[in-house]
Amino acid sequence: MGLLVFDRFDRQSGLVPTDSLQNTWATVIGVGSIGRQVALQLTALGVPKLQLIDHDEVTRTNITSQGYLTDDLGRPKVQATGDACHALEHLLAVEEIYDRYRRAQETGPNVFCCVDSISARAAIWRSLQTRCEFWADGRMLGENIRVLAADAGHGRDHYPTTLFAPGEAQAGSCTSRSTIYAANLAAALMVHQFVRHLRGDPLDPDAAFNLAAGEYVVLPVVA
């Protein structure tokens, strides 16, 4: 009896446009709490190439909040995440950049910004806003999640209004108060906006999820 051959993308057929997915690639800037989960989800989804950018190494607290392995301790996060993605899909092309994002760096048409500070987000946005086709930014503090997205038709005017001065930000960063379940949810919401972009559907440029209150709100914004 011959082996049954199952289509890798069969169960997401009709939800994710495989042709569009297979002809694009993505950059994940910051592979901490949210970024690592974004990279893993994009790999499972079927993105053929990922570029990972991060200057940090794995510490013990990253096991609990970011899903790294004990054997990853001391390794560059881009290498540990790249290995985890390859374990999901051996044919995935991964570019690992063990450094901060630099303006001269070539990036993919789809950018997932998963850095810790507003000032870093603002600098990266200024550099890439005219160079990327899709942009997603995931923010998290405790059980409060905010996901912002932009493409040619949605969110590009709104996103800069969310880049407030660092002094106006809520105290703390996404790595100072974070859980793996909130990070996974933030990543899923970002990847969902990416899939909507691939389908040509309107994005939700600004969405907030308060887990403690059980509230999910999509803010009305100007495209």
What's the architecture in CATH terms?
A: 3-Layer(aba) Sandwich
Largest sheet entry: 8 strands, mixed
Report the C-alpha radius of gyration, rounded.
Answer: 17 Å
Q: Give a count of the beta strands, DSSP E runs of length 2 or more.
A: 8
Low-confidence stretches: 169-175
What's the total helix number? 6
User: CATH superfamily name?
Assistant: NAD(P)-binding Rossmann-like Domain
CATH class: Alpha Beta
Q: How many domains, in number, for the residues? A: 1
Query: Strand-residue fraction?
Result: 15-25%
H-E string: HEHEHHEEHEEHEE
Strand order of the largest sheet: 3-2-1-4-5-6-7-8
Give me the CATH fold name.
Rossmann fold
State the end-to-end CA separation.
56 Å
Q: What is the global morphology?
A: globular
Helicity range? 25-40%
Instruction: Compute the average pLDDT.
Output: 91
Structure classification: alpha/beta
Describe the 3D structure.
With 223 residues, the chain is an alpha/beta fold. The protein has one domain: NAD(P)-binding Rossmann-like Domain (Rossmann fold, 3-Layer(aba) Sandwich). The protein has helices at residues 18-22, 33-45, 61-66, 77-88, 118-128, 180-199; strands at 26-29, 49-54, 93-98, 110-113, 134-141, 144-151, 206-210, 215-218. Helix 2 packs parallel to helix 4 and helix 2 packs across helix 6 (180-199). It is globular and about 45 Å long.
